[in-house]
Amino acid sequence: MPEAAVHVGSGKVRELYELEDDRLLLVASDRISTFDVVLPTEIPDKGRVLTGLSGFWFARTRALVPNHLLALRPDGRSTECRRLQMLPIECVVRGYLTGSGWKDYCATGAVCGHVLAEGLRDSDQLPEPIFTPATKAEEGHDENIDRERAAELVGQERLDEVEQTAIALYRFASQHAAERGILIADTKFEFGLDGEGRLVLGDEAFTPDSSRFWPADEYESGRPQPSFDKQFVRDYCETLGWDKTDPGPELPAEVVAGTRERYVEAFERLTGISFDEYLADPQVVLR
Ligand code: Q0N
Fold it and tell me: Most buried by CB count within 10 Å: which residue of 5, 113, 135, 228?
């Protein structure tokens, strides 16, 4: 990256820089967050795992919707992207009832205007995946909104297109993942528009940071599920009596090593490619 690269955005664990010719560089760090707090200890190669997975999915979903990916850099953690005009909503698809969807259902019987059957339990699979948009919060939590509010933000026609596209993406990836022992409970997309007003998938796609991955062999509805990737970190944090406010705790070496292994395992199961091969040449995920 050039020395004086203009920084155009940052997430908790990723950074976005300007490149020439209306391109951006998205760089995934090895930072990890839990309970919404970024921890002081990094997970080696986490950013590479997420970048490789995202590239894998972008390459395989191009027929469903074009995406912003232009190139993966040899470092395995940096993606050159097309600069888009981003839509002002978070596009969430849920195949299972958990997290804020479960909370909203318990309080109202509905999630983002989808009225669901009575008597559903924590982590139940939904009969059909549902599109549950949210606003982009600068600070704190995104707020779930109904489709009426989302249509005010992006227009009804565009919203219909986004909903159809997001559900199709979720169906494709969740089926692929389930065949490999990973349930994708829900996932978040960010879409933008290109210069011709075409819908384009941006950000990252179907990574463990943008989705909830659950180990299929441990799935049991009626209770919260273990996280495929972050469960060691959560379990360790729960032993400390930490109040889950910033700053978070340092992680011991065995928790770091076990967590790195889980990220690499998710990568290898989902892509069918060895992570060492990815490190040697990140392009392997695009073929
Ligand atoms: C953009 N964000 C959201 C990455 C995600 N292709 C793009 N063109 C224009 N803007 C964006 C993208 C993308 N992706 C997306 N902000 C700007 C959040 N960021 C935070 C930093 O890490």
Answer: 228
pLDDT at 138 > cutoff 80: no
Phi and psi of 286, rounded to 5°? -90, -10
Cβ-Cβ contacts under 8 Å for 150 (sequence gap 6 or more) = 89, 133, 159
Burial of 153 (0-12, 13-18, 19+ CB in 10 A): middle
Residue nearest to atom 13 of ligand 1 (CA): 203
Q: Does 10 sit in the ligand 1 pocket, CB within 6 Å?
A: yes
Please, are residues 91 and 188 in contact by the beta-carbon 8 Å criterion? yes
Encoded amino acid at 7, one letter = H
Q: In angstroms, what is the span from residue 39 Cα to ligand 1's centroid?
A: 22
Cα Rg of the chain, angstroms: 19
- For residue range 176-217, list pLDDT tens digits in order: 999 999 999 999 999 999 999 999 999 999 999 999 999 999
Distance in angstroms (rounded) separating the CA atoms of residues 117 and 154: 29
Place of tokens 């509805």: 221
Ligand 1 within 6 A of CB of 16? yes
C-beta of 14 in contact with ligand 1 (< 6 A)? yes
Residue 5 has pLDDT above 90, yes or no: no
Taking the centre of ligand 1 as the mean of its atom positions, its distance from the CA of residue 67, in whole angstroms, is 12
Alpha helices in 96-193 (DSSP H): 99-108, 147-154, 156-178
Among candidate residues 32, 70, 87, 62, the one with its CA nearest the CA of residue 207: 32
The amino acid that residue 86 corresponds to is M
Closest alpha carbon to 122 in 102, 138, 139: 102
What pTM was estimated for this model as a whole? 0.97
